[in-house]
Amino acid sequence: MADTAETQQADAKDGRRIARLAQQISAFAKEHGGAEGQVAYIGERGARIVLVGEDGGWGDLVAPSVEIAGKAVEKAGITVHESFDGEFAAKVRTGPYEWTRMAGIQVGGPGKG
Questions:
Q1: Residue 113 pLDDT
Q2: Signed CA dihedral, 84, 86, 92, 95: sign only
Q3: Angstrom distance (rounded) from CA 67 to CA 35
Q4: Which residues are bridge partners to 60 per DSSP?
Q5: Cβ distance 29 to 76 under 8 Å?
Q6: 18-42, pLDDT tens digit by residue?
Q7: Burial of 53 (0-12, 13-18, 19+ CB in 10 A)
Q8: Which SS3 state, helix, strand or coil, does residue 85 take?
Q9: Which residues of 85-105 are buried (b: 16+ CB within 10 A; e: fewer)?
């Protein structure tokens, strides 16, 4: 019986995580005129959900597993890509902050002083 109770608790906890992630994804999509995403396994930490808005804004979330991430993006109803490349990656718009954070200074990006 203890195993059944533990399984039910784990399922309820996963359900709350999925709902919370889906809510965050939906809020991002609403703020950015829609969104698309990509789920990537990041090892023991779980999975990264990369979000790209229709306006080029982007962000990410971390889920405890690829399965939970997949269920969250499905619940949010966004388009999910297999990889972060091509037309999907080209939608990302970066500014001076991102160039600086991605070592743009060393490669001659904006903000080179």
A1: 44
A2: positive
A3: 20
A4: 50
A5: yes
A6: 999 999 999 999 999 999 999 999 9
A7: buried
A8: coil
A9: eeebeebeeeeeeebeeeebe
